[in-house]
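Reminder to self: tokens first, then the designed residues, so the page reads top to bottom the way the pipeline ran.
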């Protein structure tokens, strides 16, 4: 599927640049931001949530723009411990969905939605921890002529 050229300029993530509070509490309202390139031929934008188990679409409104992008915002009330959402973007002829995988013409499964966890708190030691990732195949010798010979 070929996506429109403006798709590469879309952006949203869970950082505080796009979510007013990335670590919300239950019943808190956060503001979500979606960056859309100027010139994208969109008729309307909305966010799809399921606050009561049923799909709910809330319109998104342009709140500012710079030389290359428009920034659209919508409020999201944190009603569940795990809140997921995706964006619906309508052009004159096509409906698009934007989730954590990117833009698609298909309204995909909830597993690929953006997510906010209510009352999440990482253990205190995480900020001071050092994490290592070991790749055993990194040490694989692919050239048999360089391997030590038996009895050598």
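Designed residues (152 positions):
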């Amino acid at each position: 599927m070929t996506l429109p050229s403006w798709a590469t300029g879309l952006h949203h993530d869970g950082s505080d640049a796009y979510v007013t509070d990335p670590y919300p509490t239950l019943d808190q309202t956060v503001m979500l931001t979606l960056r859309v390139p100027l010139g994208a031929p969109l008729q309307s934008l909305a966010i799809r949530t399921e606050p009561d188990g049923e799909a709910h679409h809330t319109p998104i409104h342009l709140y500012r723009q710079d030389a290359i992008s428009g920034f659209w915002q919508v409020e999201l009330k944190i009603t569940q411990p795990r809140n997921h959402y995706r964006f619906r973007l309508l052009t004159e002829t096509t409906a698009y969905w934007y989730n954590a995988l990117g833009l698609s013409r298909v309204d995909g499964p909830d597993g690929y939605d953006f997510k906010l966890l209510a009352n999440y708190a990482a253990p205190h030691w995480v900020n001071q921890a050092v994490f290592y990732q070991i790749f055993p195949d990194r040490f694989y010798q692919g050239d048999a002529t360089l391997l030590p010979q038996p009895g050598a």
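The chain has a mean pLDDT of 92.
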